[in-house]
Amino acid sequence: MNVTSTAAMIEGASVVDQIWKFVLATRAELFVFFAAVAANLLLFGNRTPKNSRPRSQKAKRIDVEEDLDEDQAAQAKPSPKLNSGDARQLAESFHAAFDSGDHRQALQCWNLLKRFDVVPAVPIAQAVESMQRFKKDPALVMRELKAFFSKHPSECNITVVNDLLESLTKRLDTELVDKIVGMMPSIKVQPDQRTYEVRLTMHFTTRAFAEVQKLLAEMERENIPCTTKATIVAIKAALKTGNFKEAVKRFRDLKSLWSVHSGEGATASMAPRHIISQLVDLACRDHQLGEVLPHLQGVPMSEDAVSSMLSECIRQRDLDLTKQVEKLVRDQGHQLSDATYTLLVKSVSSDPARVQALFDEVVAKGTTLSADFALALLAFCMQTRSMKLADRLFEHMKPKQVPVLSAFIRFYTDTEQYDKACDIYEEHLKSKPGAAAAAAAAAAAGEEGSSSSPQAQGSSFLDVRTERSLMGAALRCGRQELAKKFLDAAPSDVAKHITMIRDCASSGNLKGAMQVFETLRKSGTEVNGVVYNTVLDACVECHDLKAAQAWMAQTKKIGLADVVSYNTLIKAYLQNKDFTKARSLMEEMRQEGLQPNRVTFNELVNGLVTRGTQSQRAEIWGIVREMKAAGVKPNQVTCSILLKSLNSHSRENDILETMDLISSMEEPMDEVLLSSVVEACVRIGKPELLADKLKQLQSTESLSVTGSHTFGSLIKAYGHAKDIDGVWRCWKEMRSRHIRPTSITLGCMVEAVVSNGDTEGAYELIHQMQDDDRFRDALNAVIYCSVLKGFTREKKMQRVWTVYEEMQSRKVEVSIVMYNTLLDACARCGRMDRVPTIVADMQKHEIKPNLITYSTMVKGHCQAGDIEQGFNILEQMKSEAGLKPDEIMYNSLLDGCAQNNLVDEGLKLLDRMQREGVQPSNFTLSLLVKLMNRCRKLDMAFELVDEISSKYRFNPNVHVYTNLIQACIANRQLQRGMATFQRMLKERVQPESRTYCILVRASVSQNQTDQAAALLRAALGLSGAQPYVTEAQARLAAIHNLDYALVGEALQGLVEKGRGQDLAAPLLSDIKRCKPGVRVDSNVQRRVMSAGIPSDASGADAGGG
Fold it and tell me: At what angle do helices 724-736 and 743-755 cross, to 10 degrees?
């Protein structure tokens, strides 16, 4: 027993010894293990483990983190602890999380709230928005909604659904809106007025007019009346689509709604005035003004709308229609402006008693009469020989404007009141300050023909016609001395030379860079190749090629030159346009055992694109092929550089090769390259290529656009392609994906909408952004200026002023571009009376006028007939701003001279223009020809065209030739006009529609019927134009945009000249056979047929009447 016990003890001791050895061997691991256990108990020992839940229950939960990507997960903040048993606290937590933008916690609250049987005290619309912000797909959102309405039948009411729809429509989420509308029958909810209202607003915002019409038709079928807002949307949609009948019908409905709700304060005076203006514009465009007038009773109208209506009355020469418009305006208590009185005088000129009454009314008001009103009234006085009214006008107005005084002089001369004409000149024009200053300036400049005599001073800005009238009046009334002075005195020129000084850009501080390097080297720090390359790059950036070469030699000497060093020096040679050196440096790289990489080739291609000559750019594709042969595949940067080289003058082959290279590129297209592609297509200026590329990009599912800048490029591209649906589709997609538009993107959107003729839509978009706190900061002066330019092009001065006043009230930062746009609006709309207000505002904001500012003011005054003020602006620009006039300003002044028949002033301007180094253009030539034509100096017109085009080595264009032909016809020299037509064809200049209109009409009126028929055949590309157009010239002579009204007019003229049988009938027969798209009025066709059209062509429609 002792032996057994001893053996057992020995064996036990051995086991203990083995265990102890094991513990000693693993003591480090055991220590880490027990430390971890202790830390776990310390941190988590007070928590009870959660009971595991069945998998089936887990499947029913919606994990709010299931769609979080890595970035979202990294940015997500831990949510505070939620009390899952308190519905009220959960609802409060939901609202707090939603308001703070923490949609992760909002969804956690929502999932906990769903466990309760009571209806969650949170709006379902906010829950849906949180799901969307958390990137939940529409199918999941719809499952949530169906589950919600199924669990809470009390919430199955139209108010809840409408609140949800309204939230979604503001975000333009048409997909989810349509799904919810489709779900409504299943929850037994019927759409009401508000449902349709929010959907109509959404579709109109995205310019889905077909959807708007579909919803309106559905409302009619279901007998659901439109709300006021829905009716306004319907009106806007009808206006945008040009549906006049629909617009009037909806406007009538709107007025009915106002009368029904008049007890609630809704009246017709609440009508948006711009909508009324658009309705009036559409009525005038469709010549349906009489149809819309009864519906405008009691509706306030803007001055623009009144002007549009009166202008239509003038066009139609309808006195009864004018009386209706005037009665409508007066019944509303509308304050008639000077412009309105001017239009009224023109529109009732056939009723002398009414014109007299209007003048009496203006006098009684004591308002200052404008030049436009005076000229309109004088035109009436000339027409009716009403000398008493003219005398009253002169006495009341006491005019000072040169155009008005000139008009009075001509009136009194034409009515044989010669003394009065001379008195006006001697008392009001002879010593006019502006004229004297101009004459003195011309005399001081020592210009030939200038004079400082009173007569020269006074006649400086008189047109030729007025001067002739005055000379005739002086001779007839016995004022021989005055007549002699007029005949002897040469007009004065107010021009004076001015010079401009240009500044140079300063170079970089290369010396400082070298000092930094020396400091680093002397500190004992190891200077590696990266530092040497950085200094080399500094030499290149400072454009010091010698320093770069010296530094490169030093870098190679110490053995630190690498591919980056060579690439940097290559960039220096490219900056200096030394492409030979750059290429030789690439060979040196290879000799040193360094291979050119993508950066090398891309730098070389970029240098050729940005700095190479035309012949050097031809090497671009050779470098691309060399790049591929070296095993370096072109990448996105390469493609972007090549795209940058494309423009409207690029060869077709270069365009196609670039697009093929992009398609064959292995790297996926990113957003930067996408932007480059669409912007290049815009620059190329080929709408079909742009449309095809956009269609191709639209079908590319692998490319996901997430950047606001890329959306901006796409919107810009769709705008240039005139695809307004594509513009709104991009905008809608960006908004539905909650991508915040930048100022640039919003600017692209507004500009695209404006350029496609929807300025009102762009202005509404600005207001939508203004009402949203998230996007308000993106609005700036550039965006507002796009709308200003749109209204300016449409000549809607009142809308321009409304935008301007809004910019002032919202304190939008002003710019010179904005003020120049406002001045352009004044010039286009003939409202130069508002210029002083704009100039004063510029001074208030310390905005200095630039050359465009002065040019615009000159253009406006010249168009208004106030050439004197135009020259005064020129002198003001010289003295105050020290600016040198450019071609645009000279052309504006030349146009003013042409309008006022100021030949001598125009020729002096031309001389001054050339002396100051401003080269005349074809536009200048067109104005000079017009000036010579008005002064009956046809030979001089041809001499000027030949002299200037030869001197400056450019060929006259179609506008110059057409003006020459017009001048020949005006001087009754049709054969010379035909010779000019032959000359333009010989010079390979294609005629335009206006060219043929002038020649064909003149040929018919002067009984040159064979010539007229041949010209018309040439224009239409029909045979039989010889001998006036040869077979070799036939293709050039044919045009695609001929005014079809000329065809009917010419056919009718041929019939009236007795050439129906042999000329008109065969011509009509050829038109219907070869040019079925040409529309000829049915009445004209009947006249041609009755004159003897061949039997095989009887009843022909020639493309429809």
Answer: 150
